[in-house]
UniProtKB/TrEMBL annotation:
GO terms for molecular function: glutathione gamma-glutamylcysteinyltransferase activity; metal ion binding. GO terms for biological process: phytochelatin biosynthetic process; response to metal ion. It comes from Parashewanella curva. This is glutathione gamma-glutamylcysteinyltransferase. PROSITE patterns: PCS. The keyword Metal-binding applies. Its EC number is 2.3.2.15. Residues 1-90 form the Peptidase C83 domain. Keywords: Cadmium, Metal-binding, Transferase. Transmembrane segments: none annotated. Pfam families: Phytochelatin.
Amino acid sequence: MGKKIPPAIINHHGIILEEVYNLSKKYVPNVKMIFGSNIPNLKQFKRIIIDGLSHGFVIINYGRKDVKQVGSGHFLPIAAYNPKSDRFLI
């Protein structure tokens, strides 16, 4: 299942996507890691997130610089989807 990462290391350096995935597999059945670069379009991306929400929860990992924020990678939980407004609650 991989090596244990001390909390002090995570607090100082953060945690990478693969480490979050491996940790999740320990506690969440049928967890999946899907890379956005492998999803052909926005419609399919939204469909994957909505499907994930119907089975539990979704965590997105994105590059902060891509949305003009300070820092590097960031994890973002998606809590819900509203089809009327076509918006996700983060």
